[in-house]
Structures are given as structure tokens and as C-alpha cells.
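Q: Here's a chain of 651 amino acids. Please give me its 3D structure as C-alpha cells.
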Amino acid sequence: MLNLDHHGSMGWLSGPLLASLLLATGCNNDTNSTPTPVAKADWHQSVAYEIFVRSFYDSDGDGTGDLAGVTAKLDYLSGLGVDALWLMPIQPSPTYHGYAVSDYTSINPDYGTLDDFKTLIAEAHKRHIKVIPDLVVNHTSEQHPWFQGMLAGDAAYQNFYRCGDTAIDGNWGEVAPGKYCYYSFGPQSGLPDLNYQEPAVRNEVLKVADFWLAAGVDGFRLDVAQDIGDGDDAYSVAWWQEFDTHVKLMKADAFVVGEVNYDSLDGNTNIAPFLAGMTSAFNFPLYNELVTAAAGLPKDLLALVNPTRERYAAVNPDYVDATVIGNHDRNRIASELNFIDSKIRRAVMLQMTLPGTPFIYYGDEIGMRGGHDLQADPHKREPFDWYAPGDGIGMTRMTQAVYGAEAKNLLPNDGISLEEQQGQPGSLYELYKQLIQIRKSNSILFTGQYQRVGTPAGSYGYQITAADADYNLLVVHNRLADQELALPITGATTELLGNTTYQDGDTLTIPAYGSVILRTKGQAAAVELGNIPDDAMDTSDVTLDIQVHVPSNTPDGAQLYMPNSDDGWDPTTITVDADTTLERVDASTFHIRVTRPRGTRLEYKFFRGGWDSSETDADGNWTGNRIFLFVDDSSQVDVNIQGWRDTNFKG
């Protein structure tokens, strides 16, 4: 029998969710269970750090990063200034990255034991560092006992997954003769979707949360949070409200941050409803704008930031915005900006001077590279580079056998290591450390009111104020790559990056593509302000003309598709959207023209015949996404596809 009632009635909310809401409103008489809340500022004024444990630090010399290794480096993290850690999945998994969980309440033996994890939490808390693990509950591994029990006919698990007797589309894979199950990422992923219409599934997931909260975690990062409803966002939001209510009963100050994958310019309208069931969500629309602004386009970031803040606050007045310039799924920011130091620093300056809680991806503080030139996903997660030679005590090893690839960016004496940067004035690491210190010393950078102001032509300036603060900040970025800018000073002020004081009548010079942060007593800026420069970006349409060359093993009748970040990577869209369907030119060449507004940053990938066969690199690895920035009036790109990933691939 086909079980398709996944997006039907939400009558289930009258059960566990209603009970949870009753508890939340005071019907719980167990006064001994009331948790002690942590001050709101702990999360609203945090700087967080994402760690891939396997690639971070090896405590026992076996080449694999582990939990004890993270514990060993807590002083490093504290010294950098971070006070919250997001750990990528730490549970057992058949995949190197861990997003295919095979046991929700155990520790990956490569990483250590549950006692190791509890030690990490205890030592982190001594340093006032909070710990949130990844919670991957949209899907499981095919090796999970629930899935194996379902295959074995165990009645307890027959409704744990979305299964039936028909394959509706390419996302349904045959798991037994005449039995098909739904996979969000296609059956080749090996990640069958859990069925949240089944009460036992929801109860089990709440038990998983209880287990980790009892172990001492401070909250959770929710993987692909919008996919719980598989296209029905209202369903997803309702579930996360139930989840969040339950978690907050266990730990009132728990931080729940969602990966809600809407990254178009107006994606915040889709993200906002999720904040009814989360403390925070990653601001992917802002990520795209930060990258393009750092690349040199004249973006008015506050035109996105301020309406987003209003929209989020209307749903959850106590929300925390989570800002990123990178994570484990995206090209590292250094690669994204073509290794141009001034642009990398601009991205960091923007992230660290805009509101919200910034999340730093491990290694970005030293400019690690990864993901460029179609490098596969493992290259975005290469070992943290602790030492100048690219080797030494605690360095982890990236092997073909485990990662499916070997390190390409871990080069000796290239200036990209902690040893080469720590304590070196002017290094990227020292800039990160300084900006974090400035953030922590000026709380209005997290929650203050931001307003664009009239600074000299060629610059972008914003003033930050707060009603309860006796000072204001003025941040000015020089957008000119080859020209200094003069900023006339009208009162006593201090430039925080250079720790330099200025008086009325002085002139501050901003280097080409440089930035300044001025702190001034009172509410008025200590500079001569004028009209906001007329630097609105031309957003007229730009056309990208792509010639796609395919390998010889491409079937004669094959269709090619180009799903992308603009269409939400929707596997149903790629079969019907004429804008992303390629025309065959000859036996080895396809052609497509893509038109988008100037300034669009598009991530895309090519698929052959459907969602289950994507392009690969020459070694057969799943490639990273291609990226194109629409700037010039007309651009031509030649794409050479190396190979195809077919349905027998699992990863």
C-alpha cells in the first residue's frame, strides 16, 4: 500500500504538540525540573565556530581528528574569541562526513566515546564556551536499525519511512522487490527520509534530543530543516515548533539554529516562519550578498539586513540572526573570492560589523582554500592547517580511502597555517581575532540599530546606535580598489582597528579597499556626513551563454539539466523548467543561455537525464557546485564535464 499522506491533515498537532504547549504555559507541576536559564546575551552576543571533528585535531596519532582533539584545542578557540561551537555530526555513520547517521545515541568510534564528549562539554563550559551538535533527523543512513528493521518486516518500523509499492519519481528508490522509499537527495544518496506523519518517529526524535541534552549540550544545529515537510513548509514549521517547545522544557536557554535552505534575495520571507520554532536560522540570502559585495559589486547590504530583521522579529522577537561567509557545503571564502586577500578581508569585515551572531567555518580564520576549480565536497573539509610544513603533531590526514579524495590545498610554507599567522601583525588570523575582540567590546554590533549614512563617494558607510548605549559606531568601507578616501573628522573619536584617536579638524585616510570603525561618545557620528552616494547597482538582465562539453560515455539520447540555487535545487523543477534545460548541439556539445539580474550569484551543477546522475570530476568524485557571478553584459563560458555519477553511487 502506498503511504503518501505526508502533507495531509495536521491533526497530529493536537496530540504531542498540544501537550508540549500546555507544559510550556505552566501546566507542568514538576518544580524540580525547572532549568536555570542563561542570560539572553549569551546567545545574542556570541561568536560561533563550526568544526568538522574528523579534520580538526588528532589527539592520539591515528590521523583522524577526534573529540579529545577538540578538547585539546579549546584554549586556542577561547584565545581566538569564540564562545560557541557547532560540531558537524559526531554519531556513527558509513560516510566520512557523518550526515548519514546510523545510530543517533552513540559516538562515532573514530571520534572517541560518549565520555570523551562529556569531557569536551565540561571543559568547554569551564571556558564559557557553549556546544551545539548537528542534529540530522530529516533522514537516516540505510544502515540505521530503524531502516533495517523496516526491511526485515518488523512491524514497529513499517511506517518510519515514506515507502510504498510505486516509484513516483526519481527520488523514490527500490529498497526491496516491489517496495520503494523516498529519498530527499535521490536514492543514490543512501539517505531515506523519515516519515514525520508517524507519531513514533516524532517521539523517537524527541528522545534523541533528550539524550543529548542530558549529556550536556547547549542546543542543536538542525540539518536541512525545511525538508521535514518535503516541500510543505507549514508542516516543517509545525514540527520544529513541537521540537523547540520540547527542547526548551528540558533546557530553557537551549539554542536551536536551523539550516533553512532559501538563499535567493527574497529567501528571508521563506525563512522567517521557521523562527516560530527555532532560536535562529542561517541567513543564506545575506551570505550571497556578502560574497558579491566583497567581490566588489556596489551592494546596499542594509537594504536587505534591516527588512530581514523586522520580518524575523515579527515572528520571534527574541530571534538571533546567524550570519555566515562559509560552511562545510560552500566553497571556502578564500576560494570563492579567487584568493584575493583584500576581498577576503572585506568579507570578514562585513560579517564582523553587521548584526547577529557570526559563525566562522574552521580554518577560514587562516584563509584555508577549498572547493574551487570544481573540487569535490571533501576539499571544502580538508584538515585544519596547524603548521607551516603542512604536517606535525595533531595534524589529521585526508585519505582517498576515507574521504574519497586526497588533500589538494594543504601546501607547505604557503602562508596558510596557524603557525605562519598567529602573532604576526597584519595576518588574517590576527584580523579575525581583533574583530572578535572589537565585537565583544561593543555589544551594539550584535543587536544595535543600523543605518546607512552619507560617506564619501566610493565608500559604503553605516552608523550603529542603541538607545541604552552612550556611544555610537561608524563603519566605512572604501569600495575603490586603487584609490584612498579622505574622511573629515568633526569631533573626538577613536578608530578601533588602528586604535588611533582623532580630533575635530583631522582627516582620516581610508586605504584602497580598506575599512575603518570609529567609536564616538554620544549618538552623533564624528565625521562630516553628506548625501548617501548615488551608487545603486545596475540590476538589468545579464545573459550567460554556456557551451557544455560532455564525456564520450554520455548516451546519445541524453537530456542535460542545470538545477541551481535560484530554483532551490528542486529536483521536480529541472524536468520542466525551460530555463534550465539544455539543447543538444552535436554528439559532444550542449548549449544553454541563462538570464539573471546583474549581481546575481548563481550556484549550479549539471545532471544527465534526471536527478540521479550528476557530473563528477575525473576521479569519479561528486564535484562541488559551479559558481557564476552575473556582472558583464554578456559572458560566454565553456564547461567540460569529466564524468557522470550513476545510481549505484552512495555518498
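Q: Can you summarize the key feature?
A: The chain is about 25% helix and 20% strand.
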